[in-house]
Amino acid sequence: MGRKKAALSRQLADIDLRLLNVFKAVVDYGGFSAAELPLNLANSTISNYISDLEKRLDMHLCIRGRAGFNLTEHGVVVYNATTELLAAIDQFRTTINHSHNRLSGYLHIAFAEHMLSVHNSCVTDALKSFTQLAPDVEVKISTMSSDEVTIAVQNKKVDIGITVLSERYHEIETLALFSEEMYVYCAKGHPLYEQNNITTQDLQQYPFVESPRLLRGREPHPDMELWKKMAKAHHQEARATLILTGAYLGILPKHIVMNWGLNQRMKPLFPKLYGYQNTFKAIRRKNIGNALISNAFYQCLTDSLKVQ
């Protein structure tokens, strides 16, 4: 009777680590399609990578179908082992960096969408300082909605996020960076656009586009609880598109309306009453594996605020 084939009978190579990183990302993001954007890979390429990994390990790792993406028992084992392996590699890199007083490795930052159009230079100044301080560190930046940035930091998918927090989290430390003004907007074609003497009760008669701050319990003003949220668009561009139809009212940052030249097509309603400020913050977990690199960039952000 022949001996059972060993699934991993050799040293791990760079390609193995590459395949394991792709596999972990697919699991973390919940499927092949969801992982395309963060991995910057086509669905077919991801599929080929997972197939290659399954062949190299001699294991069936996942199931794809109408029921969605699910791990097999072997897949769960490999995912847990991969998480431990990659964390150990990060810790090894941190230890060596500290020993040599030199930074190398990766820094993954998540930006809330359209953040830089607020025209605050502290982030770009910090990035400039960091690249000079740590030229061997590979910087990766992903753009997401505000809530997605928070989730990515909580789930350790990114090292640092720059976003607007909807609530406080005990496991996350924050650094306030800059603010943006938010207004309720009405576009041409909407019944209220040309109407004079609008009352706050008038707003309750028309559909709104739901945004993160219009979710129950997050409303900046109690009147907003009474507004009819008939559409959902948590990304700014999608929300602006719905408002421009003239069928919906909605909340947008003032700087986006101005920078996109939309101030000729929409106007704010009750800016003093319903206007509010979002504060962008740098966020990170209090205990992270990539601490040395993360600390360096966090310090660059702190220093950039001192010269604003």
UniProtKB/TrEMBL annotation:
**Which PROSITE patterns did the record assign?**
HTH_LYSR
Asked if the Swiss-Prot or TrEMBL record annotates the protein with the keyword Metal-binding, the reply is no
Q: In the UniProt record, does the keyword Coiled coil occur?
A: no
Residue ranges constituting the HTH lysR-type domain according to the UniProt record = 15-72
Q: Which SUPFAM superfamilies does the entry mention?
A: Periplasmic binding protein-like II, Winged helix' DNA-binding domain
Q: Which UniProt keywords apply?
A: DNA-binding, Transcription, Transcription regulation
Name the PANTHER family on file: HTH-TYPE TRANSCRIPTIONAL ACTIVATOR BAUR, HTH-TYPE TRANSCRIPTIONAL REGULATOR
> What is the protein name given in its UniProt record?
LysR family transcriptional regulator
